[in-house]
Specification:
By secondary structure, the protein is α+β, with helices and mostly antiparallel strands. It has 3 domains: 13-64, 2-Layer Sandwich (Uridine Diphospho-n-acetylenolpyruvylglucosamine Reductase, domain 2); 69-184, Uridine Diphospho-n-acetylenolpyruvylglucosamine Reductase, domain 3, CATH 3.30.465; 191-297, 2-Layer Sandwich (Enolase-like, domain 1), CATH 3.30.390. The protein has 12 helices and 14 strands. It has a 5-stranded antiparallel β-sheet. It has a 4-stranded antiparallel β-sheet with strand order 11-12-13-14. The longest helix is centred in the last third of the chain and has 22 residues, at 276-297. The relative contact order is 0.11.
């Protein structure tokens, strides 16, 4: 019997909490310090727990924020769209505010997993899970989104570009929770596009995903933003490609070269879904297609 137990990890005892107020949730976080796990939809936690006992979290206190109404909303004020962290992906997908003012995010939400996942998963969870393949991250990055992080003693507003630290890692400190995503509304003349490459249409992680936002003025790229997912340890902005294209005349050769520069900025890995080489090649292909689509949406025309 002793030999059978060697190498096995005991299933931890988990105490479940379901606060209905943000203040109560923050109190629990402060009380249990690092021995907690925050969930809302639980779409990432439960599959990990089922895979094996070794994948079970070491946390002894699961704090479910899914019932906190203060964290479930989509509003707009002062040209900023605000999304509560516990807002379901399916709500983002169909929101009239999102569809009208930031359609690229609605498009990304519609491609995230299956209907069941979108009905449970939340935008806060998708970001805090910090997967390099998080579908909401690239569109939010090109939209210059910020996240509000709140603790018992205060809060801070952080650009999303500074939020991720690595696979599964964020700048959140013990006792802190992501409460809101803030997205400045871009000019209606801007064009945007989100393209996701996966092994199947639903319930799949991205092999590569790309989001672009483009502004064109007098036949010249006035503003270019490019973000990619699943091709680096974190979702990334392709800043070198953005710098190259901004100020260039809108043309097919410029777009092609910009896409090549973006592909040179990725740092993909080999895994069961795709090789690093394939991901790098698809980064070029998808970026080129997304920029071209954004230009068309922005009313620009490509010269040869």
């Amino acid at each position: 019997m002793t030999n059978l137990l060697l190498g096995l990890r005991a299933i931890p005892q988990i105490e479940y909490h379901r606060p209905t107020k943000l203040r109560e949730a923050l109190r629990l976080l402060s009380k249990y310090k690092e021995s907690y796990k925050i969930v809302a939809g639980g779409t990432d936690l439960m599959p990990a727990a089922r895979r094996s006992t070794a994948s079970l979290p070491r946390h002894t206190h699961v704090i479910d924020i899914g019932s906190i109404k203060e964290l479930n909303y989509i509003t707009m004020d002062d040209s900023i769209v605000r999304i509560g962290a516990a807002t379901k992906i399916s709500e983002i997908e169909i929101s009239p505010v999102i569809r009208k003012h930031i359609p690229i995010l609605a498009d990304a939400a519609s491609q995230l997993g299956s209907i069941q996942i979108r009905n449970l998963g939340t935008i806060g969870g998708n970001l805090c899970n910090a997967s390099p393949a998080a579908d909401t991250a690239p569109p939010l990055l090109v939209l210059d989104a910020k996240v509000n992080l709140k603790g018992i003693n205060g809060q801070r507003l952080v650009p999303l570009t500074e939020f991720f630290t690595g696979p599964g890692g964020t700048i959140l400190v013990p006792g802190e929770i992501l409460t809101e995503v803030q997205i400045p509304i871009t000019e209606p003349t801007a064009g945007s596009c989100f393209i996701k490459l996966g092994r199947r249409n639903a319930f799949t992680l991205s092999i590569v995903c790309v989001a672009t936002l483009v502004k064109v003025k007098d036949g010249v790229f006035d503003d270019v933003r490019i973000a990619l997912g699943a091709v680096a340890p974190t979702p990334i902005r392709a800043t070198k490609a953005e710098e190259y294209l901004t100020g260039e005349g809108v043309s097919e050769p410029a777009i092609d070269e910009g896409a090549k520069v973006a592909a040179s900025e990725v740092a993909p890995i080999d895994d069961v879904r795709a090789s690093a080489e394939y991901r790098r090649d698809m980064s070029y292909v998808l970026t080129k297609g997304a920029i071209s689509a954004s230009v068309q949406q922005a009313g620009g025309k490509c010269s040869n």
